[in-house]
């Protein structure tokens, strides 16, 4: 079986690639990634020579290139993770999100459809999506697979749009598909623009911790390796044309999470208790900031037996240790481009 995993050099993608390459020696895993600012082959250095693994650098918005790639490999399965993934960047440059997340997904869908035409037996197009498509919750309630789509940011609107196209290809062309909508991931190899790695990096460097608004926004956090296990299960055992929500059963208000992170960092860095908390700085809110996300993951739990394997305290502990032990990785991704982004985002 030949499987295309897109976005495999990114945060979640690199964990999925690793799991598939190590678990399935009989599959040929092709990692297609454009290596944008978010893609980093260092994440996969130790498995790059495996015989069942091929890396291809390329852009999913390049239709000719994608059609040639499908012609060459005739992928039985696609696990599609490549995307522009950061909400703040989508507010500054929405069109980039439409190009990759919507047009790029369409180009992959067409290539998959044209490769298998009317014979889709044992084929699957699996789209990795987000809980942000559901918009925001109030103080109570959970997102289920039946919750209506109501995206609020250009990022979530682009992901919602691509989800709809995947579904439409299933209904219109009989293309087998799966979609999963997952909550906030954290763990090693996450680019330090997202809350947890950004704040770890800032604490290391004694820089301010920019908390948006009053900090009372809530997210449901999941350890990235648990997400990768869920993706493996859905790919192999999920029902055709189904959506599964994936979440950590682990809601945290941003400010409480940041305080926990500060405590753990003080201990690990042997700093005076309370010194990291003093870096907390309340800054201008994110426009259209969703108040609360929380996932009801009972469907994937009951149908496929999945549940998170680590507690948040354990996962956070491992994550901090990884960043402290991999400061070189952190330095290498904080390039000139990162500095420009950081200045634009936080110094205005
Ligand atoms: P990421 O930004 O870390 O990685 C994205 C990867 O896609 C990078 O390697 C990048 O080089 C690649 N890429 C971007 N544009 C491309 C293009 N045009 N062609 C080919 N490759 C391209 O993202 P992530 O956090 O790992 O998220 C992966 C997927 O999971 C995304 O689809 C995202 O919407 C979804 N998701 C993320 C989270 C989360 O908390 N991070 C939660 C739920 C769902
Ligand atoms: O819910 C899943 C989504 O989680 C994924 O689809 C996205 O790809 C991923 O980026 C993530 O989106 P968020 O916007 O929730 O993640 P982020 O880490 O950017 O922010 C988490 C929360 O922290 C959010 O309420 C905004 C807040 N925040 C974030 C940053 C970067 C701050 O208060 N300050 C910051 O500097």
From TrEMBL:
Which parts of the sequence belong to the NAD(P)-binding domain? 4-319
This entry's Enzyme Commission designation comes to: 4.2.1.46
- Which InterPro entries does the UniProt entry name for this protein? dTDP_Gluc_deHydtase, NAD(P)-bd_dom, NAD(P)-bd_dom_sf
PANTHER family on file = DTDP-D-GLUCOSE 4,6-DEHYDRATASE-RELATED
Cofactor section: NAD(+)
**Protein name per UniProt:** dTDP-glucose 4,6-dehydratase
Enumerate the Gene Ontology biological process terms: nucleotide-sugar metabolic process
Any single Pfam family the record assigns to this protein: GDP_Man_Dehyd
**Which reaction(s) are listed as its catalytic activity?**
dTDP-alpha-D-glucose = dTDP-4-dehydro-6-deoxy-alpha-D-glucose + H2O
**UniProt KW keywords:** Lyase, NAD
The UniProt entry's sequence similarity note says: Belongs to the NAD(P)-dependent epimerase/dehydratase family. dTDP-glucose dehydratase subfamily.
| Enzyme kind, highest EC tier | lyase
Q: Report which superkingdom the organism of origin falls in.
A: Bacteria
Select a single GO molecular function from the record's annotations and give it. dTDP-glucose 4,6-dehydratase activity
């Amino acid at each position: 079986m030949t499987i295309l995993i897109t976005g495999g050099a990114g945060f979640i993608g690199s964990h999925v690639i690793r799991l598939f390459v190590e678990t399935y020696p009989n599959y040929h895993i092709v990692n297609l990634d454009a290596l944008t600012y978010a893609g980093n082959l260092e994440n996969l250095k130790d498995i790059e020579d495996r015989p069942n693994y091929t890396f291809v650098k390329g852009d999913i918005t390049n239709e000719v290139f994608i059609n040639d790639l499908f012609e060459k490999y005739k992928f039985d399965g696609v696990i599609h993770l490549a995307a522009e993934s950061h909400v703040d960047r989508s507010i500054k440059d929405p069109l980039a999100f439409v190009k990759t997340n919507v047009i790029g997904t369409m180009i992959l869908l067409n290539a998959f459809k044209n490769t298998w035409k009317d014979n889709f037996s044992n084929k699957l197009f699996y789209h990795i999506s987000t809980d942000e498509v559901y918009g925001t919750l109030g103080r109570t309630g959970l997102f289920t697979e039946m919750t209506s789509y109501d995206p609020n940011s250009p990022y979530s609107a682009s992901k919602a749009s691509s989800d709809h196209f995947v579904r439409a290809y299933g209904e219109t062309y009989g293309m087998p598909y799966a979609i999963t909508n997952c909550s906030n991931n954290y763990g090693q190899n996450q680019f330090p623009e997202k809350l947890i790695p950004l704040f770890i990096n800032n604490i290391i460097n004694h820089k301010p911790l920019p908390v948006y608004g009053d900090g009372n926004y809530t997210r449901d956090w999941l350890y990235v390796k648990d997400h990768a296990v869920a993706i493996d299960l859905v790919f192999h055992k999920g029902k055709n044309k189904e959506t599964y929500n994936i979440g950590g059963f682990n809601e945290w208000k941003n400010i409480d999470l940041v305080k926990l992170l500060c405590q753990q960092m003080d201990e690990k860095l042997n700093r005076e208790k309370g010194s990291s908390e003093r870096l907390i700085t309340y800054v201008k809110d994110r426009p259209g900031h969703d108040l609360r996300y929380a996932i009801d993951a009972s469907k994937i739990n009951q149908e496929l037996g999945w549940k998170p394997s680590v507690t948040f305290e354990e996962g956070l502990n491992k994550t901090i240790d990884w960043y402290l032990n991999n400061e070189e990785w952190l330095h290498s991704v904080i390039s000139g481009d990162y500095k420009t982004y950081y200045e634009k985002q936080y110094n205005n």
